[in-house]
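Progress against Task 2.4 (sequence-to-structure conversion) is shown through the following example record, which the project officer requested during the mid-term review.
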Amino acid sequence: MYLVNNVQYDSVSRVVGWQSRFRWIVEPGNDIFFVYTHNWIDPLDPSARFATLDRRAAAKAVYTKRF
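Structure tokens generated for the chain above:
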């Protein structure tokens, strides 16, 4: 099992992005993934707060049958 987080800022588009990935290897060849992404826009007004641009989540399961 592991969890990876990535945060980055694009100074041209003024967007802050965060991605969190969780992977669980149940057995070799059998994995479960969860990914969450959240993006914020940096307003031009310094007194304003960051506003959510978009957020999404995804899940994936991989199963390998060996014979």
